[in-house]
Structure formats: C-alpha cells, structure tokens
Amino acid sequence: MPDPVIDDRLDALAAACAAPPGHFDELREADGAPRPWWRALAAHADLSAGHLSSAQARIARQIHDNGVTYNVYAAEDGPSRPWALDVVPFLVPGVEWAALRPGLRQRARLLNAIAADLYGPRHLLREGLMPPALAFNHPGFHRPCCGVLPPGGVFLHLVAFDLARDASGRWLVVNTRAQAPSGAGYALENRTTIPRMFPGAFRDLHVQPLAPFFESLKAAIVNDAPCDEPSPYAVLLTPGPYNETYFEHAYLARHLGFPLVQGADLAVRHDRVFLKTISGLRPVHAILRRLDDDYCDPLELRSDSTLGVPGLVQAWRSGRVLVANAFGTSVLESPALCSVLPAVCERLLGERLESAGVSTRWPCDSATLDAAIGGTGGVIKAAFPNISMEPVFLDDLDSGGRHEWADRFSTAPGAYVIEERVPLSHVPAWHDGRVESRALMLRVFLAADGRGDYTLMAGGLSRIAADGRPIVSTQRGGSSKDTWILSDPGTPQSAVRRPHSDHAVQIDAGVSSRAAEHLFWLGRYAERAESTARLLRAVLSRLTDPAAPDVFEPLFLRACLSQGLIEADDAVADGDFTNPASTRSFAVRLVDGLFDRRAHRSLAFNVDQTVRAAASVRDRLSPDNWRLLRQLEDLVSAPTPGSVDFDETLALIDRVIVSLVAVAGLEMAHMTRDDGWRFLGVGRHLERLTYVASTLDLPAADESANYALLEWLLELSDSLLTFRARYARPPDWPAVVELLVFDARNPRSVLFQLGKIAKHVPALPGAVLDAMADIESLERMCRADNRHQGDLFGHISVDELLGNCLRAAHALSDGLTLRYFSHAYELPHATAGR
User: Fold this and answer.
1) What is the 8-class DSSP label of residue 497?
2) 229 and 127 in one domain?
3) What is the band of 793 on the pLDDT scale with cuts at 50, 70, 90?
4) Can you spell out the DSSP letters for 230-299?
5) H/E stretch holding 658
6) pTM value?
7) Running DSSP on this structure, what letter comes out for residue 337?
C-alpha cells in the first residue's frame, strides 16, 4: 500500500532527476513509479534537502580530515585534490547482483586462462582464435614473461571490470583492468563514510559487507606465496607519495596488514627478493603491486625507471616470489580482445561466455567505419595503450572527420577499435544543494579464491560523470558513490563464508630503512615545529603586550637568530628597540616569517615537513593521528592578506601547540613499540636536546640574575609550571639549571633526553655507534650521584656541558643516518639472471 510520506520523499528526490531520453533510469520504472529498492531506501532514510545538504557537508569535512585524495597534477585545484563522494548511495538489489556474479567470475577465470595460454602453449594463436597482432603489437605483452607459470598458476589475483547499463537496463562489461586495478581501497573508504549518514537504512536494508572480499584477497596472496617458512611475508609495492592513488595504496596496506614499500626498499639477491630493514635483509615472499609493469624492473622492462627493483622479473620468473598481478597482464586490457572473447571462452573453458560485453569491431578499415556510421553510432578507441587519445563518438564527427578516420583505418587498421556506444544509465546525485541526474559507471572487483575461481566483492566503486558529460572520468571532475548490494530477503548476514588461510598470521612487519628514516624525521620536524611555536609565542606575547614587564629585546634577537627565525642581517637591522615602532617592526617580521614556507626554520615549513614525513609512512599511522596532522596543516595555511593581528596570531600559535602536543600524545599512547617507534622517539629526543641546550646557553652572565628572564627561559622549555610547583621562590640561575639540565623527572630536561636516547638507541638492531659513547658519558656526568654540585653550577661549566650536548646530538644524528638510512656501507651488487 502506498505511503504518502515515502512518496513525498521520493518525489522530492526525483523532481529534478529525470534521466535523458534513451538512457536507463536507475531511480524509476518506465511508467515513472519508483523502483522498489529506492522506495525501501526512502522508507528508512531521511532524503530531505536539509539532511542531504548537511550530510554532504559532513562527508566533505571527513574526507578532508582523513586526507582522502585523488591526485590530478593538471587540475586547477592543485595536485592533492580531495576525493569526491556523493551522499546518495547507489543501490543494486540482491537478485540482480546474484545474476551478475556467475558471468563475472567466469570472465575473470577466462582472462587468467588467456594469460596462461599467451605466455605458455599459445593454442589460441596457433589455432587462429586470436590474431597475433592483438598480443604482439600490444606494449603490455612482455617477452621476458614467456614460459613462466606463476605460483599457484594464478596470473590475476585481483581483476576489475567497468560495468554500464544499456538503454534496456542490461549490464555490459565496457572495460577491463588487469594489470594493477585501482579503486578497491576507495570503495572501502566510501563504505566507512556513507553508512554513518544513513545508519538505519544501512542496517534495515541488510547491505552486504565488503570485508570478506579483502579477507579473501589477502588469504589468496598469502596461501599462494612460495615460502618454506611458517608465515609468508607480503608487501604492497607503491610508486610513492606522488602517485595519483597513493592514498589508496596506504589505505589498503594498513587494511591488509602488508607493509607499504617502494622500489628502493627492495633488493634482489640470488633470485630472491628482500626488504631492506634496519635489521638487515628480510625475505619477501609476495608482492601486491600498484606499480605498472614497465616501471617494475629496469633490467628487463623500462631501463630508465627509478621506481622498480632490478632483478624483480627474474626472481618472479624463478618462482621465488609471488607478484600480484603477474607481469604481462596489461595485454588483457586491450579493448580489441572483446572481439574474440566468445570463441576463446568456448576453446579454453568449454563454456559459453555468460557476461555480456560491448559489441566491438577490430581490426577496423574504411568499410567497418561506414557500417558503424550507418548503424546506431559507436565510439572509436585506441586498441593499445601506447596510442594516447580520448574516445571519439561517431555521432559527433562531421564528414571531414569521418574521412580523416577512414584514412587512419586504411593506414593502421589494427590501431583502433570501434565499440558500440553505451548510453550510460542515470542515477540521482546531490550537487550544489539539489538533486541532479548523472551518468553512472560501476567498477566491480574480483579476487582469486585459491581454488581456481574468483570471489566477487559485494559492492564496488560507483563513479558518476561531471555535469553534462557523457563519459565517466574521475580525472575530469566526476564523483563517486558507495555501492549498496542489498541482501535477498531471508538471507542472513552470517551466510557469507569467510576465507581460510593455511599460514600463520604475519606478526612482525619489520621496519624498512626508508620508513625508519621518515619516522626519525617525523619526530624531529614535529618537535622542531613545537619548539618554534613556543619560542614565537614567548617572544610575541611580550613584544606586543604593553603591560609585560622587563622585555629583553636583545635576548629575543639572539633566541630568534639561534633558532633560524630571522637572518643575521635582520638582527642587525632590528637591533634598536629604543622606540615602539622598532619593536612592532620586529614583531611583524616574526609573524610574516611564521607562514614563509621557503624559510627552513619557519613554523609553516616545519609543519609542512612534519606532514610530508608522515605521508611517507602513512600506513604506520592511525586515522586519528592523520586527522590531527591534517588539522595542523590547515592551521598554518596561507593567512588572509591584510594587517597583522597579533592577538589572532597568538591564538593560532596556541592551537598549533595544542595540536602538536596531541600528535605526540597519540604517538605515545597508540603506536606499536617497535623499532619504528624507537626511531620516531629518538628523533624527538635529539631535537629537544638540541633545543634546550641551545636556548639555555643564550643568557649572558649579567642577564642570568634576572628572574623575569629566567621565567621566560622556563616558558620556552614548557617547564615554568613545574618550577613553580617545585620551588617556593622566584627563579634563580642554579635552580633553573637544576630543573632544565639535571632533573631526570622533568621530560624537558637535558638529562631526560640523554637518558631516553641512551635507552632506545642501543635497543636498535646492530646499534654499535661511536657517537653513543659521548651520549652515555654525558648522561653519567649529569646524574646527581656522579657530579659535584659546585663544579657544574658555575656558568662556564654549564656552557661547556651544553656545548658538548649539542656536538654529541649532531654526531649521533649523523651516525644514525650513515648506519640505518643511507646504506653507504653496502657493496655494489649485480643481479644474475638468465
């Protein structure tokens, strides 16, 4: 029985959402009635304009805070473009999905069988079922892969198909992604976001979960990995932070529990792959790669690649490592392959091809073009990826353009294909405060199940076109949707079978040398940013407050100069504080420098470097930690042009310090206590040791008797409250030195830093460093039971101690870099192969 409330919600949703003529309408039946699953959504979700608008704003904020990006380097809004996600989910009924599943699984098996035949017996070529040009002219066909049977006989551990509906509503396969399919991680991220906007609807509609798919993928990779150890070691290979889908790489690595590595992190020795860890070379048994074939091995593929691993193809060829997906699989992505799939399926699988694909004509000549023009229209595409071109719609060509393409087909008949033009279905999307109708394409993912078949993700990455565009493209302003596969009535969620792994769970992930270096500098830059912020606050609050007593401008100059906040020339120019204008000029200079990203000791620069270092080890950081870093980055974004407001600047610095303290707290409370955590901590303690030693050395002998100046020094080191709680008198030099140098209980003291460094560095693998002798000697000297109070309270003796601390800190930093980060101790190595 119709429900007026539900009908009103659907009417509001569909008011401006009519699909264009000739396109399938995902929302409504042919008679205009809402489809049952959309009616079910309206019955359980608030689809009012007010709720959709506020939910879309929350989604945008969450995506920004989580740092979900899709990098597009030619985009006007910069390379790190936020991921676009529409608030309205895309719904697929369970019955329809169940009908799609067998055909998609069959197509995945077929592609795997084609790869095995092309690089093996080549029955298809010998029997004329596949034209030789289709394989041998494709740049993704790699002759170094011939004769190789990957572990388990699986070429494709993960495969993706782009689906689109035709005008009748039939799903067609329009694209194949077989080399290093992207999008599964974004689909998972979408799923963590959208259900929070409609929790009741997500629960009551029994949306099928995504987790079993990723568990199946992980189990297949681990089970197929060639390994004679109890637990195979798998990694995810990424091109690095500058890749357009790097967020997804880090996200998947964290979700699967695979370390995220770059090519420089891996090495091949005697046809085996190893991860360069701070403990030495660790065997790698499986690689889930997000790096295209050509860049994976400069020895046998693209010689100018700096992203790959020399010898990786030989290690894979010898059966010593699983690479998912196998090399040479990009040949399966050619649209020309669709023209022979039905016959190939009969030959290799002995089955009729179940999943429908777009009608494809290849090779093409002038007659083929004439036939296509006389039909219902079509699309010209490049048959091979080395031909860079946008799809060309025949309907858009004038007579001159058709003649031009006829000439191209005559001279290069195998370079292009003509595909049936699929009028994409339209789905409701929320944009600029209203519902609009947008073209839709659905990318689905299948993972090998370890038994010769494939598991279909109960969902996918739904992508919608930009306004008015007939082509769905994430790079050209499109958006995405969470895909809800509704369970059939009466099907319990527990019916989903969980995959099984034959191996023990990977426990110790190890720390690569690259990750250790980034964690070390993450600690240093975060601590340096906090120290810079505290110094700026301590200086500006006194310079801009007319009621502040005992302003020590010369000391402020020395402090800012020693920490790199001003240059030596600026210090000379601002050395005269005889009038307020000079004082204000110095304060304005400090505020301007705060946001100068080119100055290597500015607050903005150090925050940027903190976030950059964190991004390189994003898989090791919790989502909460990353959200804090994103908020911190926003705080020091470029200021609004105009006059300097010192109160606002001080308030901003306060927020920066709070965020940095929160980041440090998360590191202490939530990070696993492994060697990576030790490097991060050592970086922090080294930086804090340097800061305390350099600032405590600033006062001249005649200034150290001024209690107001000593209070300022305590404030710089965040120790003023500790001093007041411990001493019932104004600060004096001996007490300040006692607290900031010799107090082992003060987390800001010199002794505290020396103790932490002396504890953590020897715990690192193979930590035999000459510089540690000085650190340990200084720690012993500073302890109360090993020093003579009278000797070390003299101002000169303290100066010498602080100078020794600075030299020891710099020497240890250099020693750690040489021992763990630079690999300068490694001998040149040539990888042998056939």
Assistant:
1) P
2) yes
3) very low
4) SS--EEEE---TTSTTHHHHHHHHHHHTPPEE-GGGEEEETTEEEEEETTEEEEE-EEEE-S-GGGT-TT
5) helix 646-670
6) 0.89
7) G
